[in-house]
Amino acid sequence: MAKETAAPAGVNRAKMYQLALFPMNNGATNVYFVLILSYVAQFGSSVLQLGMFASLMVTFMRVFDAITDPIIGALMDRTSTKIGKFRPFMIIGSVIMAVSVIALYCLTPLIPETMMWLRYVAFVVIYAVWVIGYTFQTSVTRAGQTVLTNDPNQRPMFTIFNTIGSMLGMGVMQFLIPMIKNNYNILDEAGKVITSGYARPELYRIITPIGIAVSVLLTILAIIGIAEKDRPEFYGLGGGAQEKVKVSEYVEIIKHNKPMQRLMVAGAGCKLALAIATNTTVLLALYGIMMGNYDSLYLPMMILGYVFAVPFFLLSVRTSQKKGQKASLTRYVAVALCCYVGVLILLIISQYGDPATSTMLSFPFNGGGAINLYTILFILFFGIGYGAYYATADMPIPMVADCSDYETYRSGKYIPGIMGTLFSLVDKLVSSLAQTLVAFIFLIIAGMSELPDDGTPYSAGIKVAVIVMFCVIPMLAWAATLWAMHGYSLTGAKMKEIQAVNAARKEGIAQGMTVDEAMEKWPSKE
């Protein structure tokens, strides 16, 4: 098993269990990404009867989430406790989220309809508290990587373990919730859904404790993974006094850290594509309304997406280790963009009607029809495209660590909290548009004042809205990612140079040099 550090080159390496367990922190927070961000608008609209206010509040709170990021990032950079810099934020964030989601999903439906004003107030206040907890824990995923490893051969592996953690968190909830929801559908005599399970408070009382249990378990695993590395000797150039960076300095950091500027664009594009294309309402409209059988299509297509992603995980890590994370991200996002041209064409030519027709998706499950050529082509284009994209969707996260190391190389400052949360600020501001865009597109294109559900009839407007959200917006986001990465300077070779310089400075400081003396002896090269 590899040692924590390699003395000759000053490279900080992680043990395999640390690489595998710490990314579970992202899985822990992604449980809530599904539990809250994917369902809270539907909950607010259908259960609390808040209408479109719930969708607007999702966007507002996402902006609030982004604003709190730099504040908490600065707090993290100044933090030093007996249990380290990062673990306190993981614990506090997990507790806040668990308590607030219980209050939101289990207690607010008990407020009587005669006190609707209290429902509005409770929804906003509890949601805001949850956001603070979410920011506490998510900030650690990006910032904590800097102490875990700086080995250019190890850091790309964070992507695959991070994706596994995400699948354990997000994937479990995406599988379970639709299955549980079917038990709460209210059907008419013909077996047609007249009230969706998503509109019933009983569903949320069931999925809440399940989500909390999964998230807490993953948080504990992540704490175990980072415990040995959450110590001052792994902080920056030597674990000295914590950097006290003023808010006014954020602009200067962004201005001079050009790789971070481009990564913000790429990361925001990737998150927007994921948030829109995997939005619960969009998938319900695609598989349930446009293709006519949500129960027979949703889970098989999700499973196929994950299956196709596996070889791309391995390919992306290999490419990252050989040519750097920039090369890997651009290569496989380009594959996704090309494949989604095929998905776009297939959705355009689709015709609503009998599932057995040649221009609709069809699986022989839960009342679906036989598999046809259209379905085979859709599986290929969607599977390869989604697999390539999903394998790189979280790649900007370990790339934030590269940008943080670059900032240490450039200025001598170790500020992983601020670097990670500055990335998150733009990332969340852009992705905050997701839920509002969904509601707005359904309103403008399909003329719908409320989000569609299982009982919503098919219309041409819904088809156009789905095509825009499932294909067009993600494709534009991927194009923006490719543009941003074109000028991204942190190649594999550049990162090896950066780590060598930072290691030399750290060794010099350990032998008695000041930071300024080390920076002067081993200057950065732009």
Report the uncertain regions.
1-8
H-E order: EEHHHHHHHHEEHHHHHHHHHHHHH
Identify the overall geometry.
globular
Number of strands: 4
Please state the CA-atom Rg, rounded to the nearest Å: 23 Å
Distance between the termini: 36 Å
Average of the residue pLDDT scores: 82
What structural class should be given to the helix and strand makeup? mainly alpha
Number of helices: 21
Report the helical percentage: over 70%
Strand-residue proportion: under 5%
Describe the structure.
It is a single chain. The chain is mainly α. It is globular and about 80 Å long. The strands form two sheets. The chain has a two-stranded antiparallel ribbon with strand order 1-2. A two-stranded antiparallel ribbon has the order 3-4. Helix 8 packs antiparallel against helix 13, helix 11 crosses helix 17 and helix 13 packs antiparallel against helix 14. The longest helix is centred in the middle third of the chain and has 30 residues. The protein is 71% helix and 2% strand.
Name the descriptors.
two-stranded antiparallel sheet; disordered N terminus; 526 residues; two-stranded antiparallel ribbon; 71% helix; mainly alpha
SSE blueprint and pairings:
Layout: E1 5-6, E2 11-12, H1 16-21, H2 24-38, H3 40-47, H4 53-77, H5 87-107, H6 116-143, H7 145-148, H8 157-182, E3 186-187, E4 193-195, H9 201-226, H10 249-256, H11 258-277, H12 280-290, H13 294-323, H14 325-349, H15 373-392, H16 396-411, H17 416-431, H18 433-446, H19 460-486, H20 492-510, H21 515-521
Antiparallel strand pairs: 1-2, 3-4
Helix pairs in contact: 2-5, 2-6, 2-8, 2-9, 3-4, 4-6, 4-17, 4-18, 5-6, 5-9, 6-17, 8-9, 8-13, 11-16, 11-17, 11-19, 12-13, 12-19, 13-14, 13-15, 14-15, 14-19, 16-17, 16-20, 18-19, 20-21
